[in-house]
Design goal:
Two copies of one chain form a homodimer.
Chain A (H helix, E strand, L loop, with lengths): L8 E6 L10 E4 L3 E9 L6 E11 L9 E4 L1 E4 L2 E7 L4 E11 L1 H14 L5 H17 L5 H14 L3 H8 L4 H6 L8 E2 L4 E6 L6 E5 L14 H6 L1 H7 L3 E4 L11 E2 L3 E2 L29 H13 L3 E6 L2 E2 L4 H5 L14 E4 L2 E8 L7 H17 L4 E4 L7 H12 L6 E4 L5 H10 L3 E2 L9 H13 L20 H21 L2 E5 L36 H13 L10 E2 L7 E6 L8 E6 L6 E6 L2 H4 L6 E6 L4 E6 L2 E6 L5 E8 L12
Parallel strand pairs in A: 2-10, 11-12, 11-22, 12-15, 15-19, 19-20, 20-21
Antiparallel strand pairs in A: 1-3, 3-7, 4-5, 4-8, 6-7, 8-9, 8-10, 13-14, 16-18, 17-18, 23-24, 24-25, 25-30, 26-29, 27-28, 27-30
Helix pairs in contact in A: 1-2, 2-3, 3-4, 10-11, 14-15
Chain lengths: ~675, ~675
């Protein structure tokens, strides 16, 4: 027989992922979580539903106690409430509901009295409910005394006086404060929520290879890289992300353009981690020492730049792990080590761990210690290489382990993989994810994809970090479109999502590829490449301007507030962002055509902006700092290859003549 | 650390309700269940997914063993398979998946060979995989021998010969037949499915009060009721449903039009069950004996009519239970019994059980014994009175208890309640549900609601039984629209859902109501009402015709095959039905206007019908048995108050001149 725990149904709880209770929805500390649920039972009782929540981790910063707030009925058996995320880390919420016995009784009493029925025995019943509530209140408390006095009023005096006492305003509220929750129903799961720091959502990333910052053809050091920080700061970025900074293996080392090296001077790929000089917890000797890294990091932080490192959980065949822990790797029947491959591609310089092999416990513990090591060095953001080639259970475990102690640590998944695996990694706990934005270049495909990313169920757990280029991807659009293409893709990435990034070279519009591929020609992955900061073909000022606008407009710092609007030109994308309270409304139009000027009529979303059809309003175009007065539902604008993007801050004229006292 | 059970994700499994594993989706025995799921893991392995299912209950008719079928990849990590429901009752299905080691190896080998790589050590690896597969096959079996021979072919001979042996067609299939499932991932739930008999979906119900079948003003008996069976058979119904047939209490008895009775001759409401003569397992003495009931039931079955009874789990104050089991009821503090009420309505003749009270175990057992009692008398269909006033856990328990032993038993929920409770009762296990169809009379509201009922997620577990009238509901539309209104509502109910019903009097268009209410004037619920079969205002022939068409067209016997189409007139509903294999295509147009003739242009769904734009086809209108040739995407038709509904059976001309051999 079913458990005697009441018969209330609590279902259709939102937000919740998959209904398994395993994966957290993601929010930012300081935000509130709005929770809704269907709550109902048989019959006609008035129900009370409460939202309960608690901060679960880190253990050190939580007392684990549940807080509680009443849920408001929205009609049709739906209830809503919200709770604040005042700490970083993991929360859980659930819902409890019970019948409000006294309020139900009052409601029936009112209707019976109105229908002229005798309510003698009902009054006895109501009095008993008040006595029970009094017993649940603190003995001798004012509330208990008031409840007992009301009980007497129901039992004594005329029926009319008793009914009046029962219906007295406030009595239901008082009695409901001491409910009988013996048979309350609790939702079957505690729903996890993760509260990240704001940087998990808002940040402009700049990726560069520190070894390319040297002068006179020599490999750069952290000290060299430090000299470029003022430049990166001037571009307006928030995060500098470094590819792996560890010793590079010799075995199978790659030379320029990914050929197997024959030249002892070749530097190899930074992702071929590990040599006699050390592994994932060491720094490549040519870059400097751990102290040099710390100095670089502090210098960056002094300029408002946070340093993100690469987590590439793989080894060069020379990695010390292979000698010390052969049990962590896969060996062929002939005794040779399996190298990484995705045929016909081979990575002779890379060996994968056997993540689910017999030695997984010690392997996972070691990999966790790598993350903790760099956390110890002050790193809080990790870009994770190829997470989709490692098992999901590992990521679920690792991210949980790390964040339960260090809730300000973020993981960006380089999840260039199949759609469902990309989402599964986000559910598994990755803070952010790379996306297919890199290849979406036409209007409808951008719009459809960004709606899916920012407004669908996916937006509860996955945050797209948009990259126009990476060391692995120089897209056709950038190869073919010249400087305007670089402006367009930057403007899109920087305004469609609060998180975006570029790989250095983008700002001087590096577009030379190995023919018929997306690979950079003479890629920095395998050789030194001098920086071309002073290149005449650069869009540095454009980059600075956009990053400055991002910092000055809170709407651009939020993820789920993107809305697309109508424009009558298939080469022009038109969208808007505003804050949840309606402030800082922005309209953005970006031409997708790097070759020609585009005229477009925009359909102004007057309703979303709270503007009347006849109202004149000011738009402040932020890219060129121009102002105009617009009115009505249409605006015609021109976008050129030189200025493909317009960002209008919309300002109402708050005061009109009839706002003044003397108007009339 | 996570369980070492593999790292495959199995999610987005369909069909499944709520992701709790508690509630069954509903199907009909003989149907197949098509299952889809996302199945993927890290990396590039080729995965095998299998659907597993078993018949769970009744225990007597199942061996509980799992069957298994491979799932087919649909692309984008989605897999599909189906399984047959060959028995009545409860099934469960789940999914298991694993990496196909040998096939993955072959796929990589092919690409390495194509890229010109040496595959010496790969061949050793492949040979080991074949040996392991051989060890899993029966020793000395032909398969084991073939696998060991292939192993030798990979290890001996030239690399070219070894590769050719590895790629030999059929070897992958053979090796995959003996997979290593040690680390297979199993879906976290066994998803329940319930297979009903066909009558659970297809049936026309006829409700009548047996006591109204008497002659000369005397209450009717089962013997009297029996004489009307030929008439009901002639109307074409499948089920006769009788309101409660038990002894009626004296206390608080109701007289005509629901006033408290002052006349000792008043008969009372059949829902006030229980008196000195007995309770829920007894028959009202005025109707006859248990033997008379059995005779009536057999006579009905002889005419193809199944008898459905009312399950009203409530008591008159005179019910023997109250004396024998006071612990099953709620008592007021003053010692009086609580009667049923929904203020300002009071039911002085009815007392509710205390379903969740301290004596619930014995109460639930007794209520179950009532159902089993009538099952023992051969009843298999129960219409359940007001299920939404009883706790859901009770229904979940009761229906499961009954159906696990008697899988052919159906429960129709009289769930005229809030939308979410109506759905919750269906999830709880009710076979069918009353719906809001009774009040949906205009085009858009009918269309929206029927789409929700038959095509949304609700259709997986709820089957709407459409009733134009009930003893409690004589709708405004019927009160005001005359005979045409009765034709319209009947045609809609009988063609929108395979399950529908009318309450007797409908066919002679009884439309007299208590003013400003939906209550019948002089309702049979409280007094005798002579039948008016011979009334000149009757639509009996219309009812017969529609039921005959329902029996002759399988499309009208299915629930989820309803599709709405465009018609250019807001007073005309246009829809179609066909079988899953495309056979028996019907087009149906119903005028919703009981007062005037309506002209309408129908947009013929040529695509759905598999018709070419230029193709001429025959339509056979079944209501008036007329035929016509139509062609192209539009048809103009006229619907009148006398003939408001048209049902066209669509026939292609299967053969044309170029079907003949001598055409050319």
């Amino acid at each position: 027989m079913a458990e005697p725990t009441g018969s209330i149904v609590i279902e259709a709880v939102e937000p919740e992922l998959d209904g398994t209770g395993r994966f957290a929805i993601k929010r930012i500390v300081g935000e509130s979580v709005v929770v809704q649920a269907d709550v109902f039972k048989e019959g006609h009782d008035i129900l009370v539903a409460v939202l309960q929540w608690r901060h679960v981790a880190p253990a050190a910063s939580t007392d684990g106690k549940w807080s509680e707030a009443p849920m408001q009925p929205l009609g049709n058996d739906r209830f809503s409430a919200e709770f604040p995320l005042s700490h970083l880390g993991r929360y859980a919420y659930t819902i409890e509901a019970w019948s409000d016995a006294f309020r139900t009784w009052v409601s029936e009493l009112e209707r019976k009295v109105a229908a002229g029925h005798s309510v003698r025995s009902e009054l006895v019943e109501g009095a008993a409910l008040l006595r029970q509530a009094a017993l649940r209140a603190s003995a001798q408390s004012p509330d208990a005394k008031r409840l007992l006095a009301a009980e007497q009023a129901l039992l004594a005096g005329t029926p009319e006086a008793a009914v009046a006492a029962a219906l007295e305003p406030g009595l239901s509220d008082l009695a409901s404060r001491y409910p009988d929750r013996t048979h309350a129903t609790r939702y079957l799961r505690e729903v996890p929520v993760y509260a990240d720091r704001p940087r998990a959502v808002f940040g402009a990333w700049y990726e560069f290879f520190p070894r390319s910052t040297g002068t006179d053809g020599k490999p750069g050091t952290f000290a060299d890289a430090e000299t470029l920080l003022p430049y990166i700061e001037s571009l307006g970025f928030d995060i500098v992300y470094l590819p792996p900074i560890h010793p590079i293996g010799r075995a199978g080392r790659k030379g320029p353009n990914n050929v197997v090296s024959t030249n002892p001077d070749d530097l190899g790929s930074p992702w071929a981690i590990g040599s006699r000089e050390g592994g994932h917890k060491s720094i490549h000797p040519a870059l400097g020492t751990m102290k040099d890294f710390a100095h670089f990091k502090e210098a960056a932080e002094g300029r408002g730049l946070e340093v993100a490192l690469d987590l590439a959980f793989q080894c060069s065949p020379d990695h010390p792990y292979i000698r010390e822990h052969p049990e962590w790797f896969s060996w062929r029947p002939d005794g040779t080590l399996k190298t990484a491959e995705n045929p016909p591609k081979r990575y002779d310089d890379i060996v994968n761990f056997d993540f689910l092999g017999p030695a997984r416990e010690s392997l996972w513990a070691e990999l966790k210690s790598i993350v903790l090591f760099w956390i110890g060095e002050g790193v809080r953001i990790f870009r994770v290489d190829n997470p989709h080639t490692k098992p999901l259970p590992f990521w679920i475990w690792l991210i949980r382990q790390i964040q339960d102690a260090h809730p300000d640590v973020s993981f960006l998944a380089e999840a260039f993989t199949r759609p469902k695996m990309m989402k599964a990694l986000a559910k598994a706990g990755f803070t952010q994810s790379y996306t297919y934005f890199t290849w979406r270049v036409f209007k409808q495909e951008i719009q459809d994809y960004l709606v899916e990313l920012t407004q669908g169920p996916v937006a509860e757990y996955m945050r797209g970090n948009l990259w126009p280029n990476t060391p692995d991807i120089l897209s056709d659009f950038l190869q073919q479109g010249g400087l305007p293409a670089f402006r367009i893709r930057l403007a899109l990435a920087a305004t469609l999502s609060p998180s975006y990034g570029i790989y250095s070279g983008y700002e001087w519009c590096e577009a030379r590829a190995i023919p018929q591929t997306e690979e950079y020609l003479d890629s920095e992955k395998y050789q030194l490449r001098p920086w071309e900061i002073g290149s005449p073909d650069n869009i540095s000022a454009y980059v600075s301007r956009i990053n400055q606008i991002r910092r000055g407009n809170r709407s651009l710092q939020l993820y789920r507030n993107l809305r697309f609007y109508q424009a009558d030109n298939d080469q022009v994308l038109f969208y808007g962002k505003k804050c949840p309270d309606g402030s800082n409304p922005l309209l953005i139009a970006v031409s997708l055509d790097p070759f020609s000027t585009q005229e477009v009529v925009l359909q102004i979303p007057l309703g979303d902006l709270g503007l009347g059809a006849e109202e004149t309003f000011q738009v402040h175009e932020l890219m060129k700092d121009g102002r105009a007065l617009w009115r009505g539902p249409r605006a015609q604008v021109t976008l050129t290859p030189e200025n493909p993007a317009a960002i209008w801050s919309v300002h109402r004229f708050a005061r009109r003549e009839n706002s003044f006292d003397y108007f009339d």
